[in-house]
Amino acid sequence: MSSRTLIAIISLVCAFNIAATAETTEKEFKVSPGQRLDVDLKTGGSLTVVGWDKDIVKVKYDIRGRDAEECQVEIEQASGGVRVSSHYEGRRNNSNTNADFEINVPRKFNLELFTMGGGIRLENIEGTIEGKTMGGRLDLTKLKGNLDLTTMGGRVSLTDSDVDGNVKTMGGAMNVENVTGDVKATSMGGKVTQKNVRRRSGAEIRDEVNIKTMGGDIDVDDAPEGADVHTMGGDIHIVRAQKYARVKTMGGDIVIDAVDGSVRAVTMGGNINVKMVGNPAEGDRAIAVESMGGDVTVVVPSALSMDLDITLAYTRDARDEYNIISDFEIKKEATQEWERGKGSPRKYIYGTGVISGGKHKVTIKTINGNVYLKKG
Questions:
Q1: What letters, b where the CB count within 10 A reaches 16 and e where it falls short, cover 333-366?
Q2: Number of helices (H), then strands (E), in the chain
Q3: Is residue 6's pLDDT more than 70?
Q4: Are 285 and 343 in the same domain?
Q5: Contact residues for 129 (Cβ-Cβ < 8 A; gap 6+)
Q6: Looking at the domain assignment, is residue 117 inside a domain?
Q7: Is 328 inside any structural domain?
Q8: Of the residues 230, 245, 262, which one is the last residue of a structural domain?
Q9: By C-alpha distance, which of 162, 196, 206, 168 is closest to 181?
Q10: Same-domain pairing of 295 and 360
Q11: Distance from chain centroid for Cα 252
């Protein structure tokens, strides 16, 4: 290799390193509480916004990467607050940069945020908070106000907050913990965990625990106003629910440790375990549980007034023998002939009974699984 060629390579590397490195830039603006921060990052970039005890918006950012020099950042103050935006010069495709924005705002401030790709972290802010990232996690803590936040692909964590509204991920886990308010948490593909979430007293909007995910487990610690949860594939676990529990999974186990009210639970393949608690003479106590393949265990107060209807089907290719085991007196009947109209040939065991007057309908169905009806 000639010395001229070596010098050219070294010059190219140096030029690349200079273009890939950018110094941190800071700007500050005097503002009033209750104004708005508007962020529009067309170049993408991670975004952190933290509230503090100053009537100042402070913006600090740095841009790195191959096309750092092509990334243009604009920060300006308007009558309503501060606007931060970024874009690439010209019409370049496949631009490559890494951008980090760290912004401080007064504690009481409204946010409207957008980034083409990157995580968003928000902390210690009160106001109307709206935002969307096309790909990145949402870390939300110590917030107060109204939320409408979405990530197109990333996990979401909402903790230690007093908020109403919606948080959504199109693909990632969802964790909501130590939150007061009416929050709808939605994941299109990931585990949803909700712990110590309390509704707002006197709220007019729907205040049940309402969770839907296209694929992933759901864990609910407490649902004082009822639970309505649905996953397209995963286990569901509810520690405690008042009034009612409506749960459905297209494939997974269902466990409800304690429900003080009615139950409707369906799984297309998995076990079901439900325990009813509370005063059996109060409220709606209807039960309808169904598994397309698994054991079903239902525990009820011994004094519950029930009209029992249990159906256990087992197919010819089943590996085990199945039965209905009940602490209550029931009538059992078994069919003798194989039914052939529903796929695999199957026989049935039916259990019926009227207990303590038969006030509440209790329907239990399963295929290739045992049924256990127990006194609590």
A1: eeeeeeeeeeeeebbebbbebebeeeebebebbb
A2: 1, 29
A3: no
A4: yes
A5: 110, 111, 113, 122, 143, 145, 146, 147, 148, 149
A6: yes
A7: yes
A8: 262
A9: 162
A10: yes
A11: 17
- Are 75 and 165 contained in the same domain? no
> Which of helix, strand or coil describes residue 315?
strand
Nearest to 56 by CA among 130, 126, 109: 109
The dihedral over CA atoms of 365, 366, 369, 370, expressed in degrees to the nearest 10, equals 0
Number of domains in the chain: 3
State pTM to two decimals. Answer: 0.73
E strands of 70-173, at which residues? 71-78, 81-88, 98-106, 110-115, 120-133, 138-151, 156-169
Neighbours of 132 (CB within 10 A): 17
Domain co-membership, 182 together with 253: yes
Q: Are residues 42 and 125 in the same domain?
A: yes
d(CA 184, CA 219) in angstroms, rounded, equals 14
Do residues 157 and 124 share a domain?
Answer: no
For residue 25, give both structure tokens: 């830039």
Both tokens of residue 198?
Answer: 């309390």
Q: How far is residue 299's CA from residue 274's CA, in Å, rounded to a whole number? A: 6
Last residue of a domain, which of 207, 241, 262?
Answer: 262
* Neighbour count for residue 20 (Cβ, 10 Å): 17
Q: Are residues 293 and 374 in the same domain?
A: yes
Which residue bears the tokens 């919606």?
166
Is 222:205 a contact under the CB 8 Å cutoff?
A: no
Would you give the end-to-end CA distance of the chain in angstroms? 86
Percent of the chain residues topping a pLDDT of 90: 68
The parent domain of residue 182 ranges over 149-262
| SS3 assignment, position 73 | strand
What pLDDT is attached to residue 20?
Answer: 43
Q: Is 132 contained in some domain?
A: yes
Q: Are residues 113 and 155 in the same domain?
A: no
Q: Does position 94 have pLDDT exceeding 50, yes or no?
A: yes
Residue-level pLDDT at 98 = 82
Q: Are 181 and 161 in contact (CB under 8 A)?
A: yes
For 230, the token pair is 């649905």
CA–CA separation, 143 and 44 (whole Å)? 24
Predicted confidence band of residue 305 (pLDDT cuts 50, 70, 90): very high
Q: What is the dihedral of CA 263, 354, 293, 259, to 10 degrees?
A: 20
pLDDT value, residue 18 = 37
pLDDT at 139 over 60: yes
Q: Is residue 143 part of a domain?
A: no
